[in-house]
Design a protein that fits this description.
about 280 residues, alpha/beta, Rossmann fold, 2 domains, six-stranded mixed beta sheet, four-stranded antiparallel beta sheet, about 30% helix, about 25% strand
């Protein structure tokens, strides 16, 4: 395993010898991993490597077969549901949109952990929803039905709902999938701002390696259900790591603005030249 993970800040989430699976199949096995506080961590790897499974275990959506997930140092499986929901928000892949619901009403559903028995809508709830809508830039969409929105707009609405939950820790499963490049950049800009300007901790599954390198603070590469590499500095990513994880020969060039590596396939044919 590579990288300088020993220099990561104090973790909020920890996988302690964690194994998870579905039915008779074990998907993630023996993972030991710390998620740094106030950083954007990207989970990367080929399809079927266990990224979404690991994220679901972090969100307590899948029970551990062996080992445990620790939230702020305590076993998440032993913590009350509302207590977890006030500290950890999860956005799964392509969540279903309730029929006929408006943007404002969907964002307001993020307040459910704060709505105890007989508790009425409060000024704190109103302020949290207003802040989430402002942060995600969707004020002009507040009265529109969510089902009428574009993919990028919907993704911002879902993120606003998670923000309204007011948790310090956010988990997002493929938040940029199926979006065009402009909307991908807008979502990643938002996630980076949430971390560096608003003190949140974000963990997300991403498929675009080069986007992840430009935005993430901490990279975790999975392959065959295990953590293959961890990098606390994206600049440390190399062709050897990419080839090991994705089985793809590649070349690396520095990004002209950030200086961080950008990886390109290393087997491209040169036009006009025979092999």
């Amino acid at each position: 395993m590579t990288g300088n993970a020993e220099h990561l800040p104090q973790p909020r989430l920890t996988a302690d010898k964690l194994s998870i699976g579905y039915g008779a199949k074990t998907v993630v096995e023996g993972i030991a991993l710390q998620i740094a506080n106030n950083q954007l961590t990207a989970l990367l790897g080929p399809n079927g490597s266990g990224k979404s499974t690991l994220l679901s275990a972090f969100a307590r959506l899948l029970p551990a077969r062996h080992g445990s997930v620790l939230l702020d140092g305590h076993d998440i499986a032993r913590q009350p549901t509302l207590q977890v929901a006030r500290r950890l928000g999860m956005l799964p892949q392509q969540p279903p949109v309730p029929e006929g619901i408006s943007t404002f009403d969907l964002v307001a559903r993020g307040r459910f952990p704060h709505q105890g028995f007989l508790r009425h809508w409060s000024r704190a709830d109103e302020a949290a929803v207003a802040d989430a809508i402002a942060l995600t830039g969707i004020a002009d969409l507040a009265e529109r039905p969510v089902e009428s929105l574009s993919g990028g707009q919907r993704q911002r609405v879902w993120i606003a709902m998670v923000l309204a939950q007011e948790t310090p820790l956010l988990l997002l499963d493929e938040p940029t999938t199926f979006l065009d490049v402009a909307h991908q950049v807008a979502i990643l800009d938002l996630l980076r701002d949430l971390v560096h300007k608003h003190g949140r901790t974000v963990v997300c599954v991403l498929h675009d390696l080069n986007m992840a390198l430009q935005y993430a603070d901490h990279l975790v590469f999975l392959k065959n259900g295990t953590v293959r590499h961890r990098l606390a500095d994206p600049a440390l990513c190399t062709c050897a790591i990419v080839e090991d994880v994705f089985d793809l020969a590649c070349v690396s060039v520095p990004h002209p603005q950030t200086g961080l590596p950008v990886f390109l396939p290393g087997t491209m044919a040169v036009p006009g030249h025979s092999a």
